[in-house]
């Protein structure tokens, strides 16, 4: 009898928490329901309101067909440098706004495509690829030994490199 009452109590708690969770969900504003919300898993915290592609192949396809540049962010969840850059990137309003003009992909694993690690497999690294599917070797960070690395203090350089990627797009296509 004791076990039965524990089970009923547990089921009652589950039912209550489900009902409460539903009420929380209903309070969404028009703003959040207007745009389709993607699960946060694809953004991995780099910008939850941005639309992220799931795979490198999908990202290349979208870049080519939308004629938008692709921005690939290589990072690792347990890397303090990646975490620090992610925080600054996600909180930077201008970068988040500008990022909407890109096809976006963030990867926590290495791809077999050697073009994505032109000077090594370090993290974090950010590469820009134009719609002709060319890695932009001319858009780099400030470190000669890790061309595509950015530190949190380089956020304004990253912002201007994003602008550069968009500008080059208009002049070259």
From TrEMBL:
Subcellular localization, per the record?
A: Endoplasmic reticulum; Secreted
Q: Which UniProt keywords apply?
A: Endoplasmic reticulum, Secreted, Signal
UniProt-listed Gene3D superfamilies: Glutaredoxin
GO MF terms here are:
dystroglycan binding
State whether keyword Ubl conjugation applies.
no
**Source domain of life:** Eukaryota
Q: Does the keyword DNA-binding apply?
A: no
Q: Which GO terms describe its cellular component?
A: endoplasmic reticulum; extracellular region
Where does this protein chiefly localize?
endoplasmic reticulum
According to the UniProt entry, where is the signal peptide? 1-21
Q: What InterPro entries does the database record attribute to this sequence?
A: AGR/TXD (IPR051099), Thioredoxin-like_sf (IPR036249)
Q: Which PANTHER family match?
A: ANTERIOR GRADIENT PROTEIN 2 HOMOLOG, ANTERIOR GRADIENT PROTEIN-RELATED
What does the sequence similarity comment in the record state about its family?
A: Belongs to the AGR family.
Q: Can you say what this protein is called?
A: AGR2 protein
Supply the source organism for this entry. Answer: Corythaixoides concolor
